Every structure is written in structure tokens, then in C-alpha cells.
From TrEMBL:
The chain crosses the membrane at residues 30-49. It comes from Triticum urartu. InterPro entries: Cyt_P450, Cyt_P450_B, Cyt_P450_CS, Cyt_P450_sf. This is Ent-kaurenoic acid oxidase 1. PROSITE patterns: CYTOCHROME_P450. GO terms for molecular function: heme binding; iron ion binding; monooxygenase activity; oxidoreductase activity, acting on paired donors, with incorporation or reduction of molecular oxygen. SUPFAM superfamilies: Cytochrome P450. Keywords: Heme, Iron, Membrane, Metal-binding, Monooxygenase, Oxidoreductase, Transmembrane, Transmembrane helix. Pfam families: p450. Belongs to the cytochrome P450 family.
């Protein structure tokens, strides 16, 4: 009997031990899997994060061995590269200058160039006066390349090289930047500016971003294509807006994406310009605007531009002359509203110019040399607006700079914004201060219009349009921002999220 009880007790203890072991094993397995996940997932993420960078570094090493070095930096995620970081800094965090600042902190300033992966391809960022100058002035080493050339136009001046570029640039400079052309333009655009400002005063409250775009677009289309405002031009305006958004979007081409919409809008713009071109051929219209000028001009061999060249350059010139100029004018009104002392100086100078002309509302190109403070306001506005934060180039061959190699075929992003907002070059750079232009900027630190042989062909036209608007604004009107602390959206162009809403009225006597 005792033996039976002992046997049963032993069996019970054995079963208990087995159950305990089984439970222990089960618990161990349950703990093991989360432990594995917690350990493996970070390692996997780290491997993914470095895979793109490792891939390009390995390819570079296989090609060059240990003799050369890629610029410092990091390629970011597979396929996306550093696009998410770019979008985070420019659109979500609204601290665009931190994008370059983070690279400097992580990799040092060094030669002022960094490797990255943006807009669908590996690239090198240049962001110092010396590095930018080197890229701009090395025509043999660096060619032009927009992320998607077709959006600007394969035959446009900004996408062609060599003799084709020189030929187109000469034609366009003659049409819009010579003194006689600027005199004509000043006379043509001012009546529309005067009428628009009067209409704004009647409205009382405006969204400056929208209203300035309207009048700038109307003037550009009048100068370039002789089109007056209509439902068609309103539609064209919307197509250009979508095209601009696509220029810095990730190149995903399927319905619903910004890039896909931009491509569709470019096709519609092509159709409009080609229709206008064909209509002009039939009536042999006189060369009295830019489009007809491009159609009629012959080179030294008597050759005219092809239809594709005319269309591509018209689209490119409207993009360059419309969006950037309208944005700069909007920022001028914004900063002047927040800088009463600067506005008072601007008003005083422009009132004096008007009085010297017998009270005439209109200014001419010949008045500009007397408008010295106005010129400083224009330069400061352009510096702070940073409408184009970067300029696109491509390495034609392996290029050595600062002890590093920029690989052949890699895009080079000349990051001009980083110069204009750097406290090393501009004291308190995010403060609007036209008087800083009493002294010229340090060499190489002001590159709003690019540099080298491809400096913006329309820079004088842009400054003239801004000056004209500032003259009529300061001599006849006053305005006040409704949301002076509105957040800024930096893509595709910088602008207040409320569209720079403001009260607007005639200047009190």
C-alpha cells in the first residue's frame, strides 16, 4: 500500500515536472520570437538604409579601385534615395535650410560637395561659393540636365548645348534683354499693372499670390504671344501651375501622381502653342512679339528655328518669366508689409521719381539708374525668395574636385539657396534688409540667376517687372498682411500657406 502511494506520488511529481518543462519551453519560444524580431528588425532596417549607398560605393570601387573617392554623404533608401528627407525638410518641417545643414553636421563642410540620391538618380550636391563657381564655369566638365528634360522641352535653351545653345541664347537676349526691348516692355506692361492695382483696391482684401500671378501671367502672354486674358488663358495658367509642380516631383508616371499630371499638362501646352504657330504661318503675322520673333529670326546661315524649337522655347520662357517673377513680386509685398521702415524709404524714392516727371504715373527704362533704393529692395527680395533653390547640371566625364571624384553621368545639383541663407555670408540672413546691399555681396555668394555662360537670359526682364510693380505699389497704395505669421510652403515654390492674404487700399493723402 505504501509502495502504491509512493509510486502515485512519484508519477504525480513526474507529470508536474513534465508540465513545468513544457510550459517553460512554451514560454521560452514565446519570448524568443519577440527577441528575435526586436534584434533582427533594426538590423534589417540598417541593412536596407545602407544598401543603396553600399551599392554605388562598390560600383565606384570596382571602376576606380582605391585611387579615387566619392564625395562624402549618403544615398538614403533604395529607389527613393533622400527624397523623403527632402520632402520632410521642405514641406513638412518647413525648415528647408536644414537639409544642407544636416549634411554639413554629419559629413563636415570640406569641399562643399556631397553625394546623395534625389529625383530618381544618384547625384552630387554643390553648396559652397567655390564649388558652385567651379560647376557653373566648367562648361567642358558639366552639361545641362533637368530631372525630366521633356517637361521643359528637349529643344529649349536650357536643355541644349554648344552652338545650339549659343544660337538660341542670342535670339532670346535680343528679344527681351537689350535696352530697346526693355523700353518697349516697360511701356507695354504698365497699363495692365495700373488697372490691376486699382481693381485690388476696389476689392479691399486680396490673396496677393493669386492676384499677382494673374497680372504677371497676363503681361507675359501679351509680351510673348500677344494673347489677351480669356477662358483659354485661364486654362493655360492652370496647366503651367501643374507643370511647375512636376518639375521637382518624384518621377512616378502613373495616374494620380504630380509628375503624371505635369506630363499631361505639358502635352496640352504643346498643342496650344503648335496651334498658335500654325495659325501665324497662314496669315504671315508680323514679328511683333517673342513668339513671332523666334519664328522669323534667322541665324548666320539663314536657317530658322524648327517648330519644335519654337514651341519648346516658348514654354520654357513662360515658365522662367512668369512663375519666378510673380513669386518674387509677391515676396516683395510680403516683406515690405512687415518692414515699414524699408517701405517708407521705397515710397520716398519713388514719389521723388514721379514728381521729377511732372507727376507721371509711368516710369521708363531710363528712370532705373535713379532708383537706387528700389534696386536694393529688388536684390534683397530675390535673395530671400529663393524661387529656384537649385540649378541642375550633369557631369560629362569623371571630374576631380577638392580631392573627390564626381562620376560621369551623375546629376550635379548646384544648391544656390544654401548660399543666400548662410549667416557666414549674410548677417542675420532671414531678415529682410535692403540696406545690406550698400556693399556688394561677397564674391560667389549671390547666385539667384545661376552663373557662368548659362546665367539666366531673362534676369534684366525679371528685375524690370519687379521694379515696375514696386513703383506703382509704393506711390499709390498701402497694404497689410492678415496673417503675418502664416506658415510657409516651400514646394514647388516658396509661398505663405494663406496665399499672402492682405488688406489693400489706395494710399491716404
Amino acid at each position: 500500500m505504501c509502495r502504491l502511494r509512493t509510486s502515485r506520488a512519484c508519477n504525480a511529481r513526474g507529470i508536474s515536472r513534465s508540465m513545468a518543462i513544457a510550459v517553460g519551453v512554451g514560454v521560452g519560444e514565446w519570448v524568443w520570437w519577440p527577441g528575435l524580431a526586436l534584434g533582427a528588425v533594426p538590423l534589417l532596417c540598417l541593412a536596407v538604409w545602407h544598401s543603396t549607398d553600399a551599392w554605388y560605393r562598390a560600383a565606384f570601387f570596382l571602376r576606380h579601385g582605391g585611387r579615387r573617392r566619392l564625395p562624402p554623404g549618403h544615398m538614403g533608401l533604395p529607389f527613393l534615395g533622400e527624397t523623403l528627407s527632402f520632402v520632410w525638410h521642405f514641406k513638412l518641417a518647413r525648415r528647408p535650410d536644414d537639409f544642407i545643414a544636416a549634411k554639413r553636421r554629419a559629413h563636415g563642410s570640406g569641399a562643399g560637395i556631397y553625394r546623395t540620391h534625389l529625383f530618381g538618380s544618384p547625384a552630387v550636391i554643390a553648396c559652397s561659393p567655390a564649388a558652385n563657381k567651379f560647376v557653373f564655369q566648367s562648361a567642358d566638365n558639366f552639361g545641362i540636365r533637368w530631372p525630366v528634360p521633356e517637361l521643359i522641352g528637349h529643344k529649349s535653351m536650357v536643355n541644349v548645348e554648344g552652338a545650339s545653345h549659343a544660337r538660341l541664347r542670342g535670339i532670346i537676349l535680343t528679344a527681351i534683354n537689350r535696352p530697346s526691348s526693355l523700353r518697349t516692355i516697360a511701356a507695354v506692361v504698365q497699363p495692365r499693372v495700373v488697372a490691376a492695382l486699382a481693381a485690388w483696391a476696389d476689392m479691399g482684401t486680396i490673396f496677393a499670390s493669386t492676384e499677382i500671378k494673374k497680372v504677371t501671367f497676363a503681361n507675359i502672354f501679351r509680351m510673348f504671344i500677344s494673347m489677351e486674358p480669356s477662358p483659354l488663358t485661364e486654362q493655360i495658367d492652370q496647366w503651367f501651375g501643374s507643370l511647375m509642380a512636376g518639375l521637382r516631383a518624384f518621377p512616378l508616371d502613373f495616374p494620380g501622381t504630380t509628375f503624371h499630371r505635369a506630363r499631361k499638362c505639358r502635352q496640352k501646352l504643346n498643342a496650344v502653342f503648335r496651334h498658335e504657330l500654325e495659325a501665324r504661318k497662314k496669315v504671315d503675322k508680323k514679328c511683333d512679339d517673342l513668339m513671332s520673333g523666334l519664328m522669323c529670326t534667322e541665324d548666320e546661315q539663314g536657317k530658322r528655328l524648327s517648330d519644335e524649337e519654337v514651341v519648346d522655347n516658348m514654354v520654357n520662357l513662360v515658365v522662367a518669366g512668369y512663375e519666378s517673377t510673380a513669386s518674387a513680386i509677391m515676396w516683395a509685398t510680403y516683406h515690405l508689409a512687415k518692414s515699414p521702415a524699408a517701405l517708407a524709404k521705397l515710397r520716398e524714392e519713388n514719389m521723388a521719381v514721379s514728381e521729377s516727371k511732372g507727376g507721371s504715373l509711368m516710369i521708363t527704362h531710363d528712370d532705373l539708374p535713379r532708383m537706387k533704393y528700389t534696386a536694393k529692395v529688388v536684390e534683397e527680395t530675390i535673395r530671400m525668395a529663393n524661387v529656384a533653390p537649385m540649378v541642375h547640371r550633369v557631369a560629362n566625364r569623371d571630374v576631380e574636385y577638392g580631392g573627390y571624384t564626381i562620376p560621369a553621368g551623375w546629376p550635379v545639383l548646384v544648391w544656390v539657396r544654401s548660399l543666400h541663407t548662410d549667416p557666414v555670408y549674410y548677417q542675420d540672413p532671414l531678415t529682410f534688409n535692403p540696406d545690406r546691399w550698400d556693399k556688394p555681396a561677397k564674391p560667389g555668394t549671390y547666385q539667384a540667376f545661376g552663373g557662368g555662360y548659362r546665367i539666366c537670359a531673362g534676369n534684366m526682364l525679371a528685375k524690370l517687372q519687379i521694379t515696375i510693380m514696386l513703383h506703382h505699389l509704393s506711390t499709390g497704395y498701402e497694404w497689410e498682411l492678415l496673417n503675418p505669421d502664416a506658415k510657409i510652403n516651400y514646394l514647388p515654390h516658396p509661398r505663405p500657406m494663406d496665399g499672402a492674404s492682405m488688406t489693400f487700399r489706395k494710399l491716404r493723402a
